[in-house]
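During the first year of the project, the team set up a workflow for recording each protein of interest as an amino acid sequence followed immediately by a discrete structure-token representation. This format lets reviewers and collaborators read both layers of information side by side without switching files. As required by the reporting guidelines, we include two representative entries from the current panel. The first entry is reproduced here exactly as it appears in our internal archive.
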Amino acid sequence: MQSLGERLQEARQRLGVTTREAADVTKIRSDFLQAMEANQYESIPLTDVYKRGFTKIYAKYLRLDEEKAVADFNTHHSVRAVRRPLDAGADLDDTAEPTTAVAGLSLNRDTTIWLVIGVAAFGLVVWALFS
């Protein structure tokens, strides 16, 4: 049975288009299309939502059954497909300390940038008032 990537590549070749031409029409980067055709979805640095959408768009462009393509993606390439259940608590550590609410705090890049800009603006205002 052919893999999803093999089916995508075969359909593209059957249509006689290059990955560059397919990228121009679908607006999906050609390196992403190449990764999809090579079944290397993990090399696409995006979440599964984008990978699933790209699979659907590309399959539709190639005149394949897009629902089957998405189902194959979900079965073989999504994060859910590669997760394994814990082995009866083998990964649990009884000596672990309880976590605090602050330990769960994480700042993404945009939040950090705005925080730095805010602190700098505050500093300028204070400097202007007292100089």
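The second entry, processed by the same pipeline in the following quarter, appears below.
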Amino acid sequence: MSIVNLTPRQRFIAALEHKPLEGRVPHFELVFYLTMEAFGKVHPTQRYYAQWDQMSESERHLHRSEIADIYIMTAERYEHSAIFIHQNPNTFDEICRTIDLIREKSGDKYFLMMHGDATYSVPNGKEMEKWSAWLYDDIARAKRKADRMVNEQLKFAERLARHGGLDGFALCSDYCFNTAPFLRPSMFSEVVTPYLCKLVAGQKALGYYVIKHTDGNIMPILDDLAQAKPHALHSIDPQAGVDIAVVKRRIGKEIALIGNVNCGLLQSGTDEEVTANVRYALQNGMPGGGYIFSTSNCVYTGLPLKRYEMMLDIWRREGNYPPTSS
């Protein structure tokens, strides 16, 4: 098929595989929470389903159908190449139903993914001290648990592969603060890296594309992330001082990059700052391919929709690859 006539899903996969593209750089967001402002619809993750078990099957079907519609409406209006499914309710059967509904309504137009991480992430504030003490008290036990979590996720991934319809996983365990990783690099290499490598390799072996997400300053562990060999790395966080030009030079030939548009500037920066930041991401992400345009986190509640639309206007004008020579 001509690279000019690819579907959004095919364009997304081409970027993950560093294949040449003509026309617009693929785009997606890990989450687009502004569905109420955009469509007058509550985002799937913000729906409360305490009475799910009391609903009739016809009521449940209406909820499922609207959730699928919201994901597709968002992708269509904002030209997303991929849909990240945030399943609610989060059971295996409901996950499969949502995948099937999106495919039924949109075919193979969009790349479908969901969360699939099973590695240690930054503990919450209430648990951080206790968790850190637990880790250092018995690191062998921590490693056994890390391996067990990965094995359980791979069993789930294999079961989901038998059902079909899902293209990939986004691994959404955050590892870093704005200043540094939550573990010193030597400890990260011991209790996270081997299990991240195992997880990515296992998901790839099942036929999935794998995107590793983490916010914060990834530079001290960038080589560890690259060692795991995901297809792409998200979100290349400029609020933590991560420069997409530097990351592109270091790992961009092997691993696709996603992100780098500063969410903080979208919320509170000037139009000039936003414009310069969007251009920087495009100008440094696009060369050589292997780039997918997005914010440095997600389109979160409270972020002005007009600023996101401004970001996309710049992308539509300036985020385009030239025609390739035949």
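For the second entry, the following points were noted during internal review. The mean pLDDT is 96. The beta strands are 23-24, 82-85, 111-115, 168-171, 209-213, 232-235, 256-259, 291-292, 320-321. Both points are flagged for discussion at the upcoming steering committee meeting.
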